[in-house]
């Protein structure tokens, strides 16, 4: 549910632009606000789960998330919606690290791959199901229902968690509140500066925000290195090469998931004249391939070198995205677009689950929450930067190909009537999609540095890590 909400707004973007009288940049903030509020606290909420119990943090987060979803659906202005999404993101940040930490604790290392593969596959499927569900709900019931749908799911999830989620031993932790402040300020300054840069014509204060954000993040890393008590991000985790590589890989996937849908959905609705449901169905082949291959890839995760599995995934997705970028034109057959989505879906299926499993396989039990927090935070950092970057690129490309055109008018829910303008708008979206294509290649280079995991499934020494006892 919380991962679906990362991307569910994408298809509803043109409708929200019209109904709430918003700009493209404002609607992108509906996603960015959620991602930023999700990313900043997720480092500390993993530790809170270690200290007070993963089950209880999960239930609290689910309550906040579900109530915030109701608020989102009742919003009557774009500003109110953005604020509600911030609260929703805070709830999400309380939930996600607990799910990953529980899996890490109750499965021994040699068997953790299959369990984490389910977790990773769920994440991958959710990222592509989000736009499809958003399109169906927006087309049939209205944009508000992309948030209202969370309420029954949240209630059912709460009841099931109370009954079925185990209570695990807790650990004493000291909380690095200075680290929380530094990471939060740094991420906000960086994301806000990048996203608002084009709209504010890269004014001096915008550049200052971006540079300041990078400087604060550097100070944050330095503080983590010298903090001898208990840093927010234990840098020792990164001594495990596979944990480090997995964090780079999942950062790129967060970037891509938050960025590629905006140009594609605007193209589908503004150029081809699709309604939200029809536009969302362009992503259906990607979702289907992710679902069909989830079990197969999960079986490979404990037996095949992650460099081979994830490397294949990034290569296949990059090829599919590049072909889609090349053929994103007004007259392109929808079957070609679906074929390219199949390639991207095959690749994604080989990325999400193995990356999650490889990242956490060798984590010590007392750092399960911290490791899960770092992993999810890096993914969210990628999402925040990806959302901000694609907003800048789309705005600049539209301004380049359609100088003087009102963004709202060119990217609204109605089809562009002028064929020449539609062609120019397609060119703008084509060039915007080059960004996630290049990021796929960055991920490909990163995963080539995976090493063979040290556990019995790969023929190595038996893992010393065993499941923690479950109470209750």
UniProtKB/TrEMBL annotation:
PROSITE patterns: MFS. The chain crosses the membrane at residues 27-44, 56-76, 82-103, 115-133, 145-163, 175-195, 201-223, 244-267, 279-297, 309-328, 334-353, 433-450. The keyword Cell wall biogenesis/degradation does not apply. Its main location: membrane. InterPro entries: EmrB-like, MFS, MFS_dom, MFS_trans_sf. GO terms for molecular function: transmembrane transporter activity. Keywords: Cell membrane, Membrane, Transmembrane, Transmembrane helix, Transport. It is found in: Cell membrane. Pfam families: MFS_1. It is a multi-pass membrane protein. GO terms for cellular component: plasma membrane. The keyword Membrane applies. Residues 1-455 form the Major facilitator superfamily (MFS) profile domain. It comes from the Bacteria. Belongs to the major facilitator superfamily. EmrB family. PANTHER family: EXPORT PROTEIN, MAJOR FACILITATOR SUPERFAMILY MULTIDRUG TRANSPORTER MFSC. This is DHA2 family efflux MFS transporter permease subunit. It comes from Nocardioides pocheonensis. The lineage of its organism: Bacteria, Bacillati, Actinomycetota, Actinomycetes, Propionibacteriales.
